[in-house]
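From the pipeline queue, job 12 of 40. The input is one protein chain; the requested action is below.

Action: predict structure.
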Amino acid sequence: MQPKIRKYLNAYLFLFIVAGIIIGLDQYTKELVRENIPLGGTWIPLEWLSPYARIVNWFNTGAAFGLFKDGSLFFTILAIIVMVLIIYYFPRVEKQDLIYRIAMAMQFAGAGGNFIDRMRFEGRVTDFISVGNFAVFNIADASITIGCVVLLLGSWYNDLKIKRELKEKDPIQNNLSDSIQKEING
């Protein structure tokens, strides 16, 4: 294999494996719902789950969780932008930064899963997971949301780690910084 091809394969393999699994699961579950539950219909596998969770067949022309209805064109363009930015930025993230890589792969998969629906069904996305009184959503929506949470938690964790490393390197300087910060804050 040529070195250039191997370089790109190594850079994107993780992204496309994780995103491919999530997109595959998203598309498979949406197809199951479309084939087995009429539009607007509900399936409750266990009756006692009824007030808490159910599977419904619904569509959405807006964003995740039913927000911004009739914004399909905007969200189609946004999905393309997000996917292109992730493809651009992903190889720049160090391989050891697994948290960021997972978060980006989940966001890529969510954008891709809903993008596929918008292209196939005239701007509509199939939603089917209904929990309590919360808006109906799908696996792609959940992937975007969980990816954002993972990204935020990863950023917070890395920030704490950097501060800890700085403190270990120069405790006197950092104690001064802490004192100055306390003065500023209060």
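Job complete. The two ends are 61 Å apart (CA to CA).
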